[in-house]
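Budget justification note: compute hours in this period were largely spent on complex prediction jobs such as the one shown. Inputs:
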Amino acid sequence: MENNYKAVPILSSEITPKSLYYNRRDFLRAAGILTGSALLAACAPSVSGQAVPTPGNMAAYAGKTDELGAPLNSYEDITNYNNYYEFSTAKDAVAPLSVNFKSHPWSVAVGGMVNKPQTFAIEDLLKMFPQEDRIYRLRCVEAWSMVIPWQGFPLASLLKAVEPTSDAKYVAFTTLMDTTQLPAEASSFYPWPYTEGLRLDEAMNDLTLLVTGLYGDPLPPQDGAPIRLVVPWKYGFKGIKAIVKIDLVDTQPETFWKTIAADEYGFYANVNPDVPHPRWSQASERRIGELTRRATLPFNGYGDKVASLYQGMDLKLNY
Amino acid sequence: MSISERIKQFPYTPIQIAMHLYAWSALVRMIFDLFTNHLTANPIEAMEQLTGRHTLALLVLSLACTPLNTLFGWRELLKRRRALGLYALMYATIHVIIFVNLDFGIAWSLILQTVIQRSYIVFGSIVFFLLIPLGITSFDIWKVRLGKNWKRLHQVIYFAAPIAVLHYALATKGDIFHLTGNIEEPLVYGLVVLVLLILRIPFLRRFFSSFRSRVVSLFFRQNSQRKLGTQKRLEDQRIRE
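Corresponding output:
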């Protein structure tokens, strides 16, 4: 289903810098490594893990791209390369380990500083809020990215339904805490359960999506079934999975990665090539499926829609 | 020659064969996985991590030889240190080549910016540049040329191995200094390296090797009396070196 989401023409920042492009080619030619690269290019960089049944209507997504013209990542890649530490820290191990995750029955408790707190069953959410097709880029803090066709509804719709009071300033999210379903929550190296948060205006932005589907099918467990958050202009760890609780609060909520290393993972976590992670650069990223690295875009290329939220803020301080 | 004589003349020990098989197995498996698409959706990162981890494993194995000999009198392991170290250098080189070539396409300005911003790469570079002279001087002729200094040079590995663990720990999403996040594997490697280095402290080394001979003498009275003499003499010689 289409919506108000508009396409944007290709930006010049999207184009690989000329020096980078020619520099690499000359060396490769000279060293004769071009053969090796050609060999690698011949192997379609797909992945084989637990085979997830391909969605029924893949044809509907053939040839689709994000608004900058980049192709969608394959369903196989999206469902077999997951950072979901509740199952495993190995990205390709999450799919087989999450096969028996029970995402039904499921409910999301929405409360806190709202006039109409309620608990929604997942079926109610799907009925009340029509699902939209949104193709978003996901940029991980580890410096890789994908282009993903999500189905979901704007978080703003849900928040309007529960009517936040004037005191509410932030939205806090919590993941399911259950070691029988999410076994690695037993690990004491992490402050489970996974929590995340947004400022109210970030949560009300049209881009912020509560996602329930992928490629036209319900979300598979390894991608955050049955409902997850996607905030495309922030690093992927803001996209909390398997949400059970949404609270409206007046103080900045604690978030998982910020608790682990506050000097490395901030509350805002806006994608910003000029603000490096203390231990690595965020200036470039590897788009999964591509052989060469890409320059990272400010706000992951969504600056025209969200930069105004941060006017006057020092983005190096508020990382 | 009878078969048993031929077997005795076979120049390679079981440990040697196992070691060479283990050392090459990671590369063979990686290439196989690469061409059968078993290397996750991000094969370049997967290869960087596989070669890096195998380098560390080989370094740890080479560091384990001397303590295992100290504890159990397993003399053959002392002859395996060189091969293990050279294999570690081999995988470290592949690891660096993948990073420079495949990951960054030999874009030197981008690499420089990345190296400066990624502190863990600085540590990795230090380890790599320390391993190179160790590899070059691994041949016997260098023992003659360097004399006493050969052993001192190769003791650099006691510094390089912990830096390699630090490189690994700083490359993950976790905080090794506060023991939070994705640091379980680097932590285990760090603890193992620490133990292997502690077992080299001279008074501990003497304690363990004499402990061993005393334990052996408990079970094998006559043999131990004869062996103790020569073993003790050789042990003292090696410790003094």
